[in-house]
Known about the structure:
By secondary structure, this protein is an alpha+beta fold. It has two domains: 37-134, Sandwich (Immunoglobulin-like), CATH 2.60.40; 142-182, no CATH class. The protein has one helix and eleven strands; from the N terminus they run αβββββββββββ. It has a four-stranded antiparallel sheet, with no helix packed on it. The longest helix has 24 residues, at 2-25. The chain starts with a helix and ends with a strand.
Amino acid sequence: MRKANITEILRQTTLAFCIIFLFSCARIQAPPGGPEDKSPPKIIYTIPAAGTTDVALDTRIEIRFNEYIKKTTGAVVLLPPVENTKIKFKGKRIVIDHAPLTPNTTYRISISTGLKDLRNNALKRAINIAFSTGAALDSFSLSGKIYEGFFPAEETRVHAYIAENGEIPDTLPLQPYAVSWT
Length: 182
């Protein structure tokens, strides 16, 4: 009878250790890793490179970042507008497909602070990348002051249009010739 009690005590002790072991192994917690990503995406390279001249009219435009980019409508614009422009977000790259570019024209890719990585880290400031299909780059220089009421406007998006024959265009159906931020 003593042998049966010892066997039963050993069996119950073994069962208790197994249950304790099983519950101590599985803990619900965040997976280990490095610090949270709080840095905005950075451009690794562009095709064509910023400041390039004599770019072929059929050049495929590509911007590569150091991390994956969220698809963001309106965050990337090619100016002046080109027919059939399609902006595609492909992982760490943005590819701009378009109709042939115009000869002897300076183009600018404007990337707004609305562009974010997958962790919602936005660019700290807008980025402009200029290249030309001609031998020289246009300066894209225009100066002035923007006011909102009586006060200088901050972080305002500014659109520039071409007035043909001295007429001010109805801007609603038109793509701007240039876009900038104050």
